[in-house]
């Protein structure tokens, strides 16, 4: 009886309200913990974005520095060229100046002779100075001085002097003398190691500067060179490699991440895909190049004299071996600037056209350089046409090989990774299968997350403690109240589990939808990418048709006479 | 499953002796550049026709057809079969779905048809992408390179064994 009375007297309302307060606090705490978890996730994602932005900034900064450095270096190289070889420029300018002055007979012979002798003193060791003295002496009919100056010019650079006088004689209409100089020049040439300035000879032939007989003699000799080269072991493979390098030079280095953002983000295959896109863009670039070569006017000047003067200017200004190392550096800087500071890409491009800046090249390499790198080989458009027509079958072979290489390098399967899930597609046609797989992956994650929402060992210990307090603390109000409180707390947590499960389900439903959307975007981009690759690949046929339409047998050489000359070569 | 159209007894049967002698005689004379030049040569119409008939299935029952195919390959590739170590020929299969490509393996002269996604023998798998490309009639797979043959007979060489 007394026990019952005591229980009636005990006031548990304070404990009950305290427990309720604890329950509310725990609920608040739980909400806050979830909030913190969300914040941590958001922070992590922001951090990853920041890291990417930082990496992009570093790369952009590096490129900007490389660009600035290349621009500065280019200026320095040009200054160095001016400082070291500036006096050569004075001599060069006077070459056509003397010829044009002699044409119109406005300058006294003494003045010309004095000027050339002055140049001889100002440019020691330079081959052109004695050649100009010889020219001036020839104009003033001083045979003895002309012969002495000529022998000195020939001693300094036999090949360039021969070519110079072949052109000068042609300009003066002395065809026999021009023929003799040309024969001398050709006899000096080794088709395996031609001097770079031979492109001037090809220019002259292609532009029709020489008469029909002379052009035919030169063509016969170049035909013999090709025959001789063809006899060499590995010629075919060498040609193929040579032209593959030349064609690869046109491969662009575009960045298509803006067009395919999801594949860029979710596919480990993206670098190969980007490479394939750029590789396949080569066909259009090469087609545009050859269309440019074969369309439009071929000759910039109309008269024979202007043509020869342009060739003379080119011969004396562009092919000095001493300047070559600096010219190579200048070209690398030019490419770095062209690639907006991307040094690696510029270096790759430079390596592909390096042979255009070599001192000596084979005749076929000379043709390749003329056809593909007119800016470094200084070939005219007519020469480009001539070189392309002569090399047509080699270009086709190389293009077939390159196309096959590009095709075999296209990744067959494209991997996709989204939030820990991985799949692969070939052309986006297995969408249903991938969606099911992704759903299954999210299901597994969801089940694992739901399984984690349960009473932990702490709760079970609390239950045990509460039971013990109730059982063994019978009679003690405080112990029983504590036991009851613990019991209520665990009960409240248990009741709260359903709510947590609902939250987990909601979170995973959102995640599932986001993942499915990303997967669909990846598959759509895959379809688009395959279509784009096929479109670019099909352009290889356009190039093949263009090259096949070029007929070497009917290649018409330009000329300053009315005769139509046909190039009769294999 | 691989659709095997030819029984496995072919490996044990001797090759055509006359052609083998011709091949053996020319093997020793070809240098590496000469072999490359031979690989690049345009394939003959007869050879293209012979390989195109792999789909027809006549080689399964008709030993003469098989011998004719081998003779055509021997005549076309001759020394290259040994000196360049021909592994086989892979071509697009015209049997239709589910078959994607078929192969003719040089060891045993066995013709197999493969379904989409079904892996090819190790050395021939690398030719699959090119074989299904419409620009090529078939792909000759050698130990260190592949030759893609177009329906015009023109060839393209792809270096590398992977």
Main sheet overview of chain B = 7 strands, antiparallel
SSE topology string of chain B: EHHHHHHEEEHEEE
How many angstroms does the end-to-end distance of chain A come to? 128 Å
Domain tally of chain A: 2
Number of strands of chain A: 6
Structural class of chain B: alpha+beta
The main sheet of chain A comes to: 2 strands, antiparallel
The low-confidence runs of chain B, each spanning 5 or more residues with pLDDT under 50, are 1-19
Could you give the order of the helices and strands of chain A? HHHHHHHEHHHHHHHHEHHHEEHHHEE
Can you tell me the residue ranges of chain A where pLDDT is under 50 for at least 5 consecutive residues? 562-570
Number of strands of chain B: 7
SSE topology sketch:
The complex is a heterodimer of chains A (570) and B (162).
Chain A (H helix, E strand, L loop, with lengths): L1 H8 L3 H92 L4 H14 L5 H12 L3 H14 L1 H14 L3 H14 L5 E2 L2 H9 L5 H20 L3 H14 L12 H6 L3 H25 L9 H15 L5 H15 L4 H11 L6 E2 L1 H10 L1 H4 L3 H29 L4 E5 L2 E5 L5 H22 L4 H16 L4 H73 L6 E2 L7 E2 L4
Antiparallel strand pairs in A: 1-2, 3-4, 5-6
Helix pairs in contact in A: 2-3, 2-4, 2-13, 2-14, 2-21, 3-4, 4-5, 5-6, 6-7, 6-13, 8-18, 10-16, 10-18, 12-18, 12-21, 14-15, 16-18, 18-21, 19-21, 20-21
Chain B lengths: L2 E2 L12 H11 L4 H9 L4 H8 L5 H4 L1 H15 L2 H4 L2 E7 L6 E7 L4 E6 L12 H4 L4 E7 L2 E6 L4 E5 L3
Antiparallel strand pairs in B: 1-4, 2-3, 2-5, 3-4, 5-6, 6-7
Helix pairs in contact in B: 3-5
Short description:
The complex is a heterodimer of chains A (570) and B (162). With 570 residues, chain A is mostly helical.
Explain the overall architecture.
The complex is a heterodimer of chains A (570) and B (162). With 570 residues, chain A is mainly alpha-helical. Chain A has two domains: 138 residues, no CATH class; 364 residues, no CATH class. In chain A, 77% of the residues lie in helices and 3% in strands. Chain A contains 21 helices and six strands. In chain A, the strands form three sheets. A two-stranded antiparallel sheet of chain A has the order 1-2. In chain A, strands 3-4 form a two-stranded antiparallel sheet. In chain A, strand 5 and strand 6 form a beta hairpin. Chain A is elongated, with a radius of gyration of 41 Å. The C terminus of chain A is likely disordered. Chain B is α+β, with helices and mostly antiparallel strands and 162 residues long. Chain B has one domain. Chain B contains seven helices and seven strands. Chain B has a seven-stranded antiparallel sheet. In chain B, helix 3 packs antiparallel against helix 5. The longest helix of chain B is centred in the middle third of the chain and has 15 residues. Chain B starts with a strand and ends with a strand. At the A-B interface, helix 10 and helix 18 of A face helix 2, helix 7, strand 6 and strand 7 of B.
């Amino acid at each position: 009886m007394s026990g019952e009375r005591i229980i009636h007297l005990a006031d548990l309302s304070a404990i009950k309200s305290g427990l309720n307060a604890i329950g509310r606090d725990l609920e608040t705490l739980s909400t806050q913990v979830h909030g913190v978890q969300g914040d941590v996730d958001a922070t992590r994602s922001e951090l990853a974005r920041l890291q990417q932005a930082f990496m992009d900034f570093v790369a952009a900064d590096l490129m900007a520095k490389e660009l600035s450095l290349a621009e500065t270096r280019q200026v320095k190289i040009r200054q160095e060229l001016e400082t070291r070889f500036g006096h050569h420029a004075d001599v060069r300018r006077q070459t056509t100046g003397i010829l044009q002055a002699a044409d119109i007979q406005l300058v006294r012979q003494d003045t010309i002779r004095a000027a050339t002798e002055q140049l001889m003193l100002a440019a020691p060791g330079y081959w052109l100075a004695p050649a100009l003295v010889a020219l001036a002496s020839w104009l003033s009919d001083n045979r003895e001085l002309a012969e002495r100056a000529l022998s000195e010019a020939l001693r300094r650079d036999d090949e360039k002097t021969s070519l110079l006088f072949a052109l000068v004689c042609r300009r003066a209409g002395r065809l026999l003398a021009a023929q003799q100089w040309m024969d001398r020049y050709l006899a000096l040439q080794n088709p395996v190691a031609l001097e770079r300035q031979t492109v001037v000879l090809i220019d002259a032939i292609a532009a029709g500067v020489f008469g029909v007989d002379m052009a035919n003699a030169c063509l016969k000799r170049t035909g013999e060179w090709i025959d001789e080269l063809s006899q060499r072991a590995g010629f075919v493979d060498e040609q193929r490699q040579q032209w593959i390098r030349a064609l690869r030079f046109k491969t662009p280095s575009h960045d298509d991440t803006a067009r395919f953002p999801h594949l860029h983000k979710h596919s480990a295959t993206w670098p190969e895909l980007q490479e394939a896109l750029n590789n396949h863009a080569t066909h259009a670039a090469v087609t545009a190049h050859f269309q440019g070569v074969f369309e439009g006017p071929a000759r910039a000047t109309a008269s024979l004299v202007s043509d020869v003067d342009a060739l003379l200017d080119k011969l004396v200004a562009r092919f000095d071996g001493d300047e070559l190392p600096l010219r190579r550096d200048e070209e690398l800087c030019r490419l770095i600037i062209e690639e907006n500071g991307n040094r690696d890409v510029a270096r790759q491009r430079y390596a592909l056209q390096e042979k255009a800046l070599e001192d000596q090249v084979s005749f076929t390499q000379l043709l390749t350089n003329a056809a593909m790198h007119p800016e470094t080989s200084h070939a005219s458009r007519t020469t480009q046409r001539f070189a392309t027509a002569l090399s047509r079958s080699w270009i086709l072979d190389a293009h077939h090989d390159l196309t096959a290489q590009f095709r075999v390098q296209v990744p067959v399967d494209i991997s996709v990774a989204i939030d820990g899930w991985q799949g692969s597609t070939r052309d986006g046609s297995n969408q249903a299968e991938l969606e099911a797989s992704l759903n299954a992956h999210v299901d597994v994650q969801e089940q694992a997350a739901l399984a984690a929402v349960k009473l932990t060992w702490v709760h079970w210990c609390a239950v045990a403690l509460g039971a013990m307090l109730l059982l063994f603390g019978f009679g003690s109000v405080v112990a029983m109240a504590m036991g009851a409180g613990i019991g209520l707390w665990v009960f409240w947590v248990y009741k709260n589990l359903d709510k947590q499960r609902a939250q987990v389900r909601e979170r995973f439903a959102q995640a599932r939808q986001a993942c499915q959307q990303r997967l669909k975007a990846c598959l759509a981009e895959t379809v688009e990418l395959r279509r784009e690759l096929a479109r670019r690949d099909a352009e290889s046929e356009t190039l093949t048709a263009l090259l096949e339409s070029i007929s070497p047998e009917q290649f018409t050489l330009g000329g300053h006479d009315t005769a139509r000359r046909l190039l009769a070569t294999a | 499953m691989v659709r095997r159209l030819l029984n496995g007894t072919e490996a044990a049967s001797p090759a055509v002796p006359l052609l083998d002698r011709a091949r053996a005689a020319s093997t020793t004379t070809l240098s590496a550049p000469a072999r490359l030049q031979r690989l690049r040569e345009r394939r003959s119409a007869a050879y293209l026709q012979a390989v195109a008939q792999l789909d027809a299935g006549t080689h399964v029952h008709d030993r003469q057809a098989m011998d004719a195919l081998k003779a055509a390959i021997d005549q076309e590739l001759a020394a290259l079969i040994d000196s360049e170590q021909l592994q086989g020929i892979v071509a697009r299969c015209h049997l239709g779905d589910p078959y994607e490509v078929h192969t003719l393996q040089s060891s045993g002269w066995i013709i197999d048809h493969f379904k989409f996604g079904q892996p090819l023998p190790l050395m021939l798998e690398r030719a699959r992408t090119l074989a299904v490309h419409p620009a090529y009639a078939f792909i000759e797979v050698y130990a260190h390179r592949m030759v893609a043959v177009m329906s015009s007979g023109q060839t393209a060489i792809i270096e590398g064994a992977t």
